[in-house]
Amino acid sequence: MEKSGLVLEGGGMRGVYTAGVLEFFLEKHMFFPYIIGVSAGACNAASYVSRQHGRNQKVTIGYVNHPDYISYKNLFLKKELFGMDLIFDKIPNELDPFDFQAFTAAQENFIIGTTDCKTGEPVYFNKESYARDILTIIRASSSLPFMAPIINFAGKALMDGGISDPIPIKKAIKDGVEKSVIILTRNKGYRKKKSSLSKLTRYFYKEYSGLINAIENRYKIYNETLDYIEQLENEGKVFIIRPEQELQVGRVERSPIKLTQLYEQGYDDAFRLYDELGAWISQPEYSIGKSSREAVFT
Question: I need a labelling partner for 112 at 20 to 30 A (CA). Which of 48, 120, 123, 220 fits?
Fold first, then answer.
């Protein structure tokens, strides 16, 4: 059982907000024993776990104008709006290497949420068992409906983890986390509306009734989860970091200026809330590593 944990929402390019928060945490050598994320949240968490300062900003904002990063041409030809091969193969293996060794050696329990297309239910993978396949799993968790193909892994057809469990707080609680720090990528008061693409969903994914049902009910799951989280927040059981300023960034934003502003907003919000967060965790015990000098909330 872990006393504290970090729960990360997805949100496409809005995830640069989370990247800014995690960069501040990295600078403070601040880590949680349990981390769970979906989609963009999982992407950002991977570089946080591997202790790679500035990497999330570089691979998200730095490559946003690459012709294959976000491409409507690729959406037409390959059914991929985001260049998944670029993001989950060429960048981490060649252009801006992901530190697999540091990631594997990290002590944090890192969980990634995906959605089973057959059942529509969430499927979770942990770093301890699947470190070698981390890029494939995060790719599956980030494969948005209509924007990326289904990923086949571990005998399952998988897609965006945000469909079935958009903010995996209940999974964290089930795993024994007593105090969760939740990073959201929407302003307070936001609620998702019902999708208008029901007919298209039923046609496009006609072989996957579970996925169809999950997509059509996604807005309900998301809104119910937010209601639950806000109840926990009012009871002092979770600590939420969310954008305070009105968002100017969408899921597929391509403006480096807007993305950088949101990244800096995440960093600044983490800085502003740092002392309050420390007090909320109630004077946590710190475990100082001999070489890394990292403060770990236990």
Answer: 220
